[in-house]
Amino acid sequence: MQWPISVCGQHCKNLPNPMNLTIHGLWPQICSNPWTSLPCPFPNGYTTIRDQSLIERLKVSWPDVIWERDERFWACEWNKHGGCSEQLYNQNAYFNLSVNLKDQFDIFGQLQRAGITPSKYYNMRRINRAIKLYTKKQPELICNVPPGTQPNWNYLWGTWSCTPGIRSCIPGQTN
User: Fold this and answer.
1) Looking at the domain covering 4-160, what would its CATH class be?
2) Of 24, 56, 86, 140, which residue is the catalytic one?
3) Could you give the percent of the chain with pLDDT greater than 90?
4) What is the pLDDT of residue 100?
5) Which tens digits make up the pLDDT trace of 134-150?
6) 15, 46, 125, 140: which could form a disulfide with 75 (CB 3.0–4.6 Å)?
7) Interatomic CA distance for residues 106 and 20, integer angstroms
8) pTM score of the predicted model
9) Is residue 77 flagged as an active site residue?
């Protein structure tokens, strides 16, 4: 998940709903270290999504907030990460699962229920606790903090955690 305002900085022309988190990706191939970029063992490339309902859901939940090239962004994420789940999920199922997980684990709503709202300063431990209480998983928070400023909601770039029910498709890897 990513906070569009922090990802964009001054680069975005048309910011998507700034009052929600958006999907950056679903990385099933390596839950123990999502920043490791492993080659997918199932390298079938992205194919254009034809399901209009799915496209509309992706445009809201998984937009390319910087370049506004949604299809290109989805292709990149499928080719780099999603294809790794191909034995469990075909391309449409992968994207549907991503949007469904975002909706199921309404991180933005949970933060609001915990009294954490945009444009105020919060201790990162407080944000961590609120997410962990809800998801039962320890999140990893990434901040984009300009020099000379304090980390706060506006600079929260993203969060990830290993999600129950998602299995790794790399032999020997588990979450």
Assistant:
1) alpha beta
2) 24
3) 23
4) 93
5) 888 888 777 666 566 55
6) 46
7) 9
8) 0.75
9) yes
